[in-house]
Amino acid sequence: MRSATTASGTTPRPSPSPVRLFLAARPARSTLAAAVIIGVLTAWLGTSLAPVPTAVDAGQATVPVWRLLALGAAVLPVLALHSQLADLEVVATRRLRRLQRGYLAGMGSTCALIYLGLSATTLSVTALAVAARAWIAWFGLALLSGAVLGWRLAWVLPAIAAVIVIYWGYMGDGYAWWEFSARPHDDLLSLILSVGLLAVGVAAYSATPWRRRRWSPSRSQRRGLLPPGRGRSLTGFDRVR
């Protein structure tokens, strides 16, 4: 069977697959490299103590460096969602959203394994468990921040939360119940809070503009001008005729 040729007699190159195009527009390699760097830094300097300001009378406390690096490791895969074609992907198709979900799951799990695997070379088991729990919370906050502010600003909410938990979370003789990045590894409330933040982030990520239009009734329906089901277009979007 002969292959198709152009007018000039040359065989056209096959178009790249959607997956390759999707990955080409995102910083996948640099994100994985950054995860390795953070993991190496955690293994090298993770047990060192860094002075930080706190609300206690002394005005200062020290925290292990791995607590600070865990935030960066969790934000990385969410930052990697930013695309060079972000303006064109605002109205994402179902196929693009499927690729984005797979990319986020793969990048998140890979970055977590790299970070925790390298950190395990020097951190104790209990410290590693706390780092993993904090990673979950920071990742959820990054998803929430990215969904609201844009993926390039996924670091904003985690950074604000880090200032709050570090400055006000230390009570002098212990940590507040909501200080998920420092409470003991077997603290149930911290685990519940971390999982809850992850759930909020996943929900914010899932609330695409299309879904928000479906979840909220049209203005006319809220005012009672139209019965439920009227004013909906054939394509499934709410629209008042």
Shape: globular
Terminal residue distance: 53 Å
Output mean pLDDT: 79
Q: Count of DSSP E strands?
A: 2
Proportion of helical residues? 55-70%
Sheet with the most strands, sense and barrel status:
2 strands, antiparallel
SSE order: HHEEHHHHHHH
Instruction: Give the neighbour order of strands across the main sheet.
Output: 1-2
Whole-number radius of gyration?
23 Å
Percentage of β-strand residues: under 5%
Structural class designation: mainly alpha
Low-confidence stretches: 218-241
- The number of domains is 2
Count, helices: 9
Q: What attributes does this structure have?
A:
241 residues, mainly alpha, 2 domains, two-stranded antiparallel ribbon, 9 helices, 2 strands, 4% strand, globular
Walkthrough of the structure:
The chain has 241 residues and is mainly α. The protein folds into two domains: 18-207, no CATH class; 215-241, no CATH class. Helices cover 56% and strands 4% of the residues. It is built from nine helices and two strands. Strand 1 and strand 2 (60-64) form a beta hairpin. Helix 5 packs parallel to helix 7. The longest helix has 26 residues, at 94-119.
